[in-house]
Specification:
Multidrug-efflux Transporter Regulator, Chain: A, Domain 2, Methyltransferase, Methionine Synthase (B12-binding Domains), Chain A, domain 1, alpha/beta, about 290 residues, 3 domains, two-stranded antiparallel sheet, Rossmann fold, 13 helices
């Protein structure tokens, strides 16, 4: 039922769009498709613009686009030609080849063309995140050298931090992002921060291998709504458990990444951010 201002509860929105409430919530969390307001009683209320975005997303999915790309186009109003996927795949190959050859100029040119061809989030989700997973597998097998892995990570970190410029000026809740002591892998955390900032969050980024004393001092100075840790696969948080529990008594704490399980998060008294960096950022929209 619509309220007197024309806003819809999720059940009515589902009826009018022929979509289940569960799928609407998934699209809202994963892709930032919907931007509900809240009633005085705390109920989520959706607008005619939200309804139009859902119908457009369904139309684009029916035409053959993925749900992620369809939602992106519905939100931005952009369109991508049928040749966009091959173009992105070709540019992703160019990027991988340039990084393997230590070709800084070639890698930057490939990234520039990728960002011109698609949204930043699409490039991160569809190109950079899969590349980093493949790079990790190749390094584990010995197919790339330590030098190649370090070169690629450093170049991508620099470009991502360039894309993150201004992420500390948002008007929404403040997030402090950090890797715990000993954790050097922060590219996923940077991507999470970019995605969260584009959903209105204000980001204070501390980066790799951050001492808990530094995190505590930042909490005192910034007064964040949430501290977010990123932990990669193979990272053990056991030695930091006491410090994390103590921090969680002062401020809400969330941890994401392949290095933590539900049981570990529960034992530490923190929120588990599940999924990839973009799903995790979307889950904070509640």
């Amino acid at each position: 039922m619509a309220n007197q201002n024309g806003y819809l509860r999720i059940g009515e929105l589902a009826k009018r769009t022929g979509t289940s409430p569960e799928l609407l919530r998934a699209w809202e969390l994963r892709y930032g498709l919907l931007r509900p307001s809240r009633s005085a009683g705390g109920f989520r209320l959706y607008s005619e613009d939200d309804k139009a975005k859902i119908l457009r997303t369904k139309q684009l999915i029916a035409s053959g686009l993925s749900a992620a790309e369809a939602a992106r186009q519905a939100v931005t109003g952009e369109t991508v030609t049928e040749d966009a996927t091959p173009v992105l795949e070709g540019l992703a190959d160019d990027l991988r080849d340039a990084l393997d050859r230590f070709d800084e100029d070639g890698a930057n040119r490939a990234l520039d063309r990728l960002i011109a061809a698609a949204s930043v989030e699409t490039v991160m989700r569809e190109v950079l995140l899969p590349y980093l997973r493949i790079l990790g597998d190749r390094w584990a097998r010995g197919d790339v050298s330590v030098a190649q892995e370090h070169f690629a990570s450093a170049l991508l970190r620099g470009r991502l931090l360039g894309l993150a410029r201004g992420w500390g000026t948002g008007s929404g809740p403040t997030l402090v992002l950090a890797c715990p002591p000993g954790e050097q892998h922060d590219l996923g955390l940077i991507m999470f921060g970019i995605a969260a900032s584009r959903r209105g969050r204000r980001i204070t980024y501390l980066g790799q291998d951050t001492p808990f004393s530094t995190i505590g001092a930042t909490v005192d100075a910034v007064g964040p709504d949430l501290v977010v840790f990123g932990v990669a696969e193979g990272t053990s948080l056991g030695e930091h458990a006491r410090a994390i529990r103590a921090l969680a008594k002062r401020v809400p704490v969330a941890i994401g990444g392949a290095g933590i399980t539900k049981d570990e998060a529960r034992g530490l008294g923190v929120l588990l951010l599940e999924g990839d960096p973009f799903e995790a950022a979307g889950a904070l929209s509640d």
